[in-house]
Design a protein that fits this description.
homotrimer; nine-stranded antiparallel β-sheet; 2 domains; elongated; 4 helices; alpha+beta; five-stranded antiparallel β-sheet; Proliferating Cell Nuclear Antigen; DNA Polymerase III, Chain A, domain 2
Chain lengths: 259, 259, 259
């Protein structure tokens, strides 16, 4: 009885197909893989969203990809679990300006990528055990708009000094600093060098350098990152990518000095 | 008694001197070293030929280098055994457009390379134990002319999936495919994307990816490779390089699925 | 009592501040770190000098940096002990055309580097145990002005042959040669290819390749190096950098063939 399905395995019959520039997909994957190896996308006719927390529950990411980020996009409501290393291997096949086409074959539980004359089929991960973390609604006291290029330089300078950094905001400036046993480093950006600064008093927290470094290095050069801070609180980072069709929220727990 | 030689040590007195572009020599060495580390060239006044088989007897190469590939060429009939790693170290000294001069000093059993102001002398290998493999005369059912750039991409896509690939030719298309436990990949080139296609029926064989990858990656981008196939037979690859002054035949045994 | 200092900790109160192009500092650090990891600069109002010998006492370097090498320079007489790896980490923050500012905070025993919006503070090393080696006053028989680009190529060619090289000067040419068990290589530069040649008779010495390679590879391409030689004597190398504001002398002990 062709066409008859007794059990459709959940998402069978639901459809997802989309096409986007290789460099757009690469930008998304870089950001997400700063935190996790596997990801569950929640897909709707209007776009994709994801929420993920790292294994140690230190950082959390929330990403929204508007369908405008795609060249073409057609989707029913569904979930899509993907292995990011496999998508990276697909991205290596494409030059930045090339298009990558994705098509879900829900009956087979596969996602099909097409790049040029290559067809790459990968198993869709079972998402039943991948729950969406609840993203806390933080109200932090200060915020600054900082060039990611400056932050990358500050991270690079901090790298040989210590494994944690202090971020500080006051009405005059943003500062990233790092203290070692004998040496220290700081990146100081006065109000005039910031895209935006809102702080009524000085706030300051310490964070693990490796987490901060992973996310910042994944952000494309030229991006302005909004950093929200409070004293001894998680930081909240948010920024847009891909002509504002992609928005990212990122939370990172502070390192509390107990000793 | 000048000019008198009591014992000429085999090739003594026979001469070989030639000059060629660094990039031409590099192209030859890349191809040969995809298969073997040491090689015996059979040299005549008209050019050089070599036949080589890899240690596992899985693949075989036959190369003919017309004297037109050289800027200057003078040779008596002789054999020349060379260590390819040593030639690669000479190639590292030269930019692509520079000329490399080779001169045999048969009395000393040396080959002398000259690059710029550098003179590099290397021992000629004893060729007495290096026999020419007999290249079988295969008559295969189908052949296609395929862009090596496409093949490189297909190999790259297959790399993370499996350690063997299937090549398929039918009257409509050429296909390279690779099946893993959960994922798969294929490169499909329809007739219109091939330089040439001749197949009366579908033929298909499986080959070890590493061997195929080594030879394909050694071929300069932009080259069209002729692939001859039959079902469960060795493949035969042939292509020209260096303005058709170099021709290469390559045979690769199939992987027969016994289990 | 502001301004009153009971104990000034040696150099406290003495000042050093200077600014120079990143690429100039990089050039200096590359040369010095070919020999040592830590260095003591002797600083005067007119510039900086250093003398250093490697741990095995095989090679010695003397460098003079005129204050003209700096964009701005202000210094009292003092000594400054620095860890070269730390300066390299600062250099990684700067592009070649960017300026790096150095300021001594003698009270804290720190040297402060400023690059863009980054401030990097590093501990000044205790120089009390870093004595200046006495540089011998050698009078060698022959000298040639040799392109460092040619020397780099000769070193590269020698690399796979042996771990020592022979330098030779006679009234006709400069020669770098290297003999292995089966292979050999030489770089021969006739008088016309040398910037300068003065040799009344042939002189020749053998040197360790690794030391010679380290210093030569650290010299910027396009530099002419003066090589002074005598038979079985140390070699003396001297050259200028940074528009002649930096002069370098380098001595390397010969490898004497005892067996």
């Amino acid at each position: 009885m062709p066409g008859t399905v007794l059990y459709d395995g959940g998402d069978a019959g639901r459809q997802f197909s989309a096409e986007l520039k290789s460099e757009t997909l690469k930008g998304l994957v870089n950001i997400i893989s700063a935190l996790v190896d596997e990801v569950k996308f929640n897909i709707t006719p209007e776009g994709m969203t994801l929420k993920a927390v790292d294994a140690a529950h230190v950082a959390m990411i929330e990403m929204k990809v508007d369908k405008g980020a795609f060249e073409s996009y057609y989707a029913d409501d569904c979930e899509l679990g993907l292995d990011l290393d496999k998508i990276k291997s697909v991205l290596k096949l494409a030059s930045g300006v090339e298009f990558i086409r994705m098509e879900q074959n829900a009956n087979l539980g596969k996602l099909i990528f097409k790049v040029g004359n290559i067809t790459r089929s990968m198993t869709i991960l079972d998402t039943s055990s991948m729950s969406d973390p609840k993203v806390p609604d933080l109200h932090l006291k200060a915020v600054a708009g900082v060039s990611v290029d400056e932050l990358k330089r500050g991270i690079s300078a901090a790298d040989s000094i210590s494994d944690h950094i202090t971020l500080r905001l006051n009405p005059e400036r943003f500062e990233l600093s790092c203290e070692g046993d004998t040496d220290s480093v700081s990146l100081a950006l006065d109000k005039g060098k910031l895209a935006d600064l809102s702080a009524e008093e000085e706030v300051c927290s310490m964070y693990p350098l490796d987490y901060f470094s992973n996310i910042i290095k994944a952000v494309p050069n030229g991006t302005v990152i909004n950093i929200e801070l409070d004293s001894n609180y998680p930081m909240k980072i948010w920024f847009d990518m891909a002509d504002n069709h992609v928005s990212v929220n990122y939370l990172l727990a502070p390192r509390v000095e107990s000793d």
